[in-house]
TrEMBL record:
<protein>
    <submittedName>
        <fullName>Uncharacterized protein</fullName>
    </submittedName>
</protein>
């Protein structure tokens, strides 16, 4: 014979099961957690396309394309950029493997620079 009463656990009310077998009564309170009540995604919800994520805009202005050719001098690079030769030499001081370019008439033979 089984009877039910109410038991409170984790903010929810669950039945208290009383089992009576051979004149011995045992009480069991059935508990559950809110994790078990989590709504699962259906197949259709899982197949929905993800929201479009746009990349943030760059803080730096995009410059215009510049013509570059092999064996340019530092002065020619400055002229095509529309900058001062000192500015180009300062920028090149921050780039690796540019120690040999210190004057405006030095030829840039490393195309990766």
């Amino acid at each position: 014979m089984t009877s039910f009463q109410k038991c409170v656990g984790f903010g929810r009310i669950f039945p208290l099961v009383i089992l009576r077998n051979h004149n011995v009564a045992s009480r069991r309170c059935i508990h559950g957690s809110s994790v078990l009540y989590k709504k699962r995604k259906t197949r259709e919800e899982r197949k929905l396309p993800k929201a479009i994520v746009y990349s943030p805009k760059s803080k730096w202005k995009q410059g215009e394309p510049v013509d570059v050719w092999k064996r340019m001098t530092v002065a020619e690079v400055a002229n095509t950029l529309g900058k001062d030769v000192g500015h180009v030499l300062e920028v090149m001081s921050f780039i690796d493997n540019t120690e040999q370019y210190r004057k405006d008439r030095d030829v840039i033979d490393n195309f990766k620079v």
